[in-house]
Amino acid sequence: MRVTAPGTPLLSVRDLSVSFRTEAGLVRAVRSVSYDVAPGEVLGIVGESGSGKSVSSLAVMNLLPGHAEVTGSARLNGQELIGQSDDALSAVRGSRIAMVFQDPLSALTPVYTVGDQIAEAILVHETVSRGEAMRRAVDLLHTVGIPNAAQRATAFPHEFSGGMRQRVMIAMAIANRPSLIIADEPTTALDVTIQAQILDVLQTARRMTGAAIVLITHDLGVIAGIADRVSVMYAGTIVETGSVDDVFYRPRMPYTLGLLGSIPRADAGERQPLTPIEGTPPSLINLPTGCPFVPRCPMAQDICRREEPGLLPIAGREPADTQRAACHFKDDIEQRQLTSRDIFPAPLPSSDAVRSVPREQRQQMLVVQDLVKSYPQMKGAVLRRKVGEVRAVDGVSFDIREGETLGLVGESGCGKTTTIMEILNLGRPASGHIAVLGHDTARMSGAEKFGIRRDLQVVFQDPMASLDPRLPIGEILAEPLRAHGVAPERVSARVRELLTLVGLRAEHVNRYPAAFSGGQRQRIGIARALALEPKILVLDEPVSALDVSVRAGVINLLERLRDQLGLSYLFVAHDLAVVRHIGNRVAVMYLGRIIESGDVDEVFDRPAHPYTQALLSAIPLPDPHKERARVRIVLKGDLPSPANPPSGCRFRTRCQKFANELTEPQRQRCIDESPALLPRTGSPDHLDACHWATAVEVL
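-> structure tokens emitted (699 positions)
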């Protein structure tokens, strides 16, 4: 094993470039990237999708397809990795450098147990018996926080949740105590509580092995809490780099400023419009001369179009300062101390006339009372019989008033989507009551349902999957208008009005969905939902699949449309920072029930239920100082099965208060008695379902 000499980098990447030859031309995916990683250091690499983050790290590992053209240098402890044969690198990968992939289900072999796969990683690089390798595999599973490690080692990947599979990947990565771990979006698509667990496991792995980490992510809050240094990538190259404090508090590249200004803050009570970066990243085929950020940069001038700036130090800083930025005007930004709002002016807050009326005086747009939705558990191949039921939604109640946004939040599997599908179905619930604009869905005729659907529309999570790829967007927007009998001469004009309303160009009516970016496709989905001038929009994770810069524009659009058109939103999300920004009220779900609800600021500032406190403490904040000072409440384990929920309080099996603070009689009450959703914090509008609730600040 090679040892890094004091003061020398563990990994040194110089002028790394990656190109792919395609029918459309040469794709320059990575362009002259250089960086160092010191022993034990965490380097964060951030940027929008397509910026080259993952490709650059796959090139270091020599995991790119054979047609990739890779040039430059990547030295690990002085050993060159670029250009080496796969056989030569096989001795390095897994032992001295390891990778945690974004999708653990694809990275794990489905036909072998997780214990066998971890043991194999050990046997390939060390001369030990299979029994010893399996014992170490069990120890590693225990280290990364998997309960009953000996038993779970015999399970297959599909028997684990997404968070558990990611823990298995981390256990495999640290099996041979590597000196460098590359983690490629390790928390993407995970719930915020599971994300906190994975980051905690990564920190444990770092302490246990002393490894340096290259963390690739689009979440700047994650970087603020774990990284020592950060590199921002755009159009295949690094455009700013430095210590995490310098880049977050003194960014000097307009793109970095835009990224930071576009993030909703869960700890910000005063809501201001976000600062989106308009436009899309450039095509990496035949990049124009000059700075690739020019089409999206409000500061761009002629020199920016002629010359691409180098990654250079900031003038006037101390010689030891390592912050560098690729911008012709970085020194001007430094001298004038410009912020994201100075460079990317945010839209003015829209009028709030509807919500200036007291809530109790506004019309109830949607009422859900004691809603229950269960699914039978069947057994038998020939003679099927019911052996139980899964209560996906178990007594949910809430209402939404005119001009109001209710955020429905919780972990995956808590019942959010089932709740909204029951609402959108406009049918008779198995139990409970749903009223849309005063109409009881259990008593609606077919004609009444058809009429109500004009006023109740939905925007789905994946805009590409919800738009018909065979139709131009003009036809997509015209379809609901024609279905509801809008006069033909009015349809064309209304389609153009809708495109203008959501910030798209009316002349694009004949383009197909594939010709638009993700953010533009989501705007098309919103336009379609608004076609019939509805009063209520159900928004199912509408921004979760979008880059942070694009997401800001869609959030601003939703806020403007709500206030301009007097809409009411049921906003389903797992991103609590977005809910804090756009919501007026919030309802937190756990295992089919609402366990806390109320005004969004009251719930976020002083959550009362231990589960809400854990959710909020897990939200990464894009503020390094705050992140370092915070104490996280890391939940243990995954959600219990809704087919067999715990008795009494359903949260007690993961509740830190139950485990560490309550007396035995208090615990017994949690075991025996299910808490009701009641006001306990002094505010009649702030409800929680906990016997021993205490409102505290966690953000």
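The longest helix spans residues 192-209.
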